[in-house]
Amino acid sequence: MISGSVDLHTHSSASDGSLSPHQLVDVANKIGLQAISITDHDTVEGSVEALDASAPTPLEVLPGVEISADLPSGGMHILGYLISFRDPQLIKLLGQLQEGRRKRNREIVARLIDLGVGVTYEEVLETAKGGQVGRPHFAELLVHKGVVHSFDEAFGKYLGKGRPAYRERFRPRPAEAIQAIRTAGGVAVLAHPYTVERADPYGFEGVVKELHALGLQGLEVYYPDHGPQRTAAYERLAHRYGLVATGGTDFHGRAKSGIHLGVGRGDLRVPYCVVEAIKACRK
Ligand code: AMP
Ligand code: ZN
Ligand code: FE
Ligand code: FE
Known about the structure:
single chain; alpha/beta; TIM Barrel; 2 domains; four-stranded mixed beta sheet; 11 helices; binds adenosine monophosphate; binds zinc ion
């Protein structure tokens, strides 16, 4: 039991996680989490379902989403907490992102066929079981078909940026993503900042400064891949810009092996006061 902890970054089968929102709520209750947020890629469907599922249980579910945004050095992910699911601007942006994924997914299928890999769009949809299709579903299908042995090989050979089946998709400017989250009454947080730092170590702080000027309110400081040194550096960075330090595991179920709900690789703990800080941000 890990009572008193929270996990504010999780994925359900509404995007590329392997557990349904109901199952996620069940597991969270079983291990004694106090709060979770389902932050699926570019959709709030999982979050809506989890909120319903959690109502008769002790678990608190924070409305959440993880929006892909554009960055010259690569993509970035912006988490939105406490968003209103009914906000027209947010719904419109998520619709554009979903349409962009559909277009990109068809292009990936066409590329794979050109490369001699026999896959169909229908097989990809089946793999995603009705959820938002992401590249991890392509990776799963390629492993399932025996085209590659692992997710890593699928991304390394075909799906990763710069690989032959990689295709761009629509991503809004960070300003638009942040604004949509805030207009919907939400709190905007930069997800796994190390991915931004890794892509452009020298420009990193400038990006955070710029995002802050655009209305960013938080930084995902506590994350399985950050390690003690990075975590401390991000705590200082958050403090410098008056950003809330948030955290979560980026749990995907079996779609991301080694990452467990609530604890990441075993040692991550995010205290409930982070939820209070996020709520305070909105006032
Ligand atoms: P998409 O949003 O459909 O473009 O897919 C991006 C997702 O694929 C990310 O959120 C990661 O979970 C996953 N991903 C990206 N690169 C890799 C990689 N090299 N190995 C494994 N998973 C990856
Ligand atoms: Zn994901
Ligand atoms: Fe992410
Ligand atoms: Fe994520």
